[in-house]
Amino acid sequence: MLQLREQLQHCYQPFHDYVNGLQSALIGRLDALDASVAEHPRLTEISTRLTTLADAVKKARPHITYRFDDIAFAWWELLGLASIGFVFSAFSLLLAAKILPDSWLANPITVGMFGSTSNAICALYEQANGVRSCPSFTFTEIDTSRGHRK
Fold first, then answer.
1. 66 and 46 within one domain
2. What count of Cα atoms within 13 Å lies in the side-chain half-sphere of residue 143?
3. What is the dihedral of CA 62, 68, 69, 70, to 10 degrees?
4. Do residue 55 and residue 68 come from a single domain?
5. 7 has pLDDT over 80
6. Phi and psi at residue 149, in whole multiples of 5°?
7. Rounded CA separation 95/97 (Å)
8. Phi-psi region at 83: left, alpha or beta (left = phi > 0; alpha = psi -120 to 50)
9. Domain check: are 51 and 74 in the same one?
10. Where are the membrane-spanning stretches (predicted)?
C-alpha cells in the first residue's frame, strides 16, 4: 500500500506543483484587483451590490403557496388539513353508526356491500364457521348468485 501510494504521489506531483503555482498567481492577481477596486468608488458600490445579491440568492428558497380566499397555505399545511378532515370524517361515521338506529346507517351500507342484509348475515356465518353455505331455514328468498337464501 505504501509503495502504491508513493508511486501515485510521484505521478501526480508535477500536476500538484503546477496547480499550486497557478493558485498563488491568482491570489496575487486577486489582491491587486481588490486594491484597484478599492480606488474606484463606483466599482466598490457594484461589488457591494453583487455581494448582497449573491448572499440573497444563497438564502432564497422556492416557497410555493396555495391561496384560498387571501389565506396562503403551504403544501404541508394542506396535507395536514386534509388528514385532519379525513380523521374527522371517519370519527363522524363511527359516531353516527353508534348513535343512529341500524336501519338508518348499517342497513344501507350492508345492502351496498352485499346486496341485502341476509347476504351479509350469511357471509358472516360462513366466515365464522368456515363453511361454504348457510342454513337455509332462516331465509325466505333464494339468492341465485350465492346459492343460498336471502
1. no
2. 20
3. -10
4. no
5. yes
6. -90, 150
7. 5
8. alpha
9. no
10. 73-97
**Interval 125-142: pLDDT, tens:** 888 888 887 776 444 444
Domain count, the chain: 3
C-alpha cell at 36: 484597484
Nine-digit cell at 92? Answer: 363522524
The mean pLDDT of 72-79, rounded to a whole number, is 79
121 vs 140: CA distance, rounded Å:
13
Residues 105, 125 within the same domain? yes
Q: How far is CA 83 from the centre of its chain?
A: 13
Give yes or no: residues 26 and 49 share one domain.
Answer: yes
Whether residues 111 and 126 fall in one domain: yes
SS3 content of the chain, % helix, strand, coil (to 5): 70, 5, 20
Q: What are phi and psi of 107, to 5 degrees?
A: -65, -45
Beta pairing class for 142-143 and 71-73: unpaired
Report whether 120 contacts 113 (CB < 8 A): yes
For residue 41, the one-letter residue type is P
Same domain for 78 and 111?
no
Range of the domain at 139: 101-150
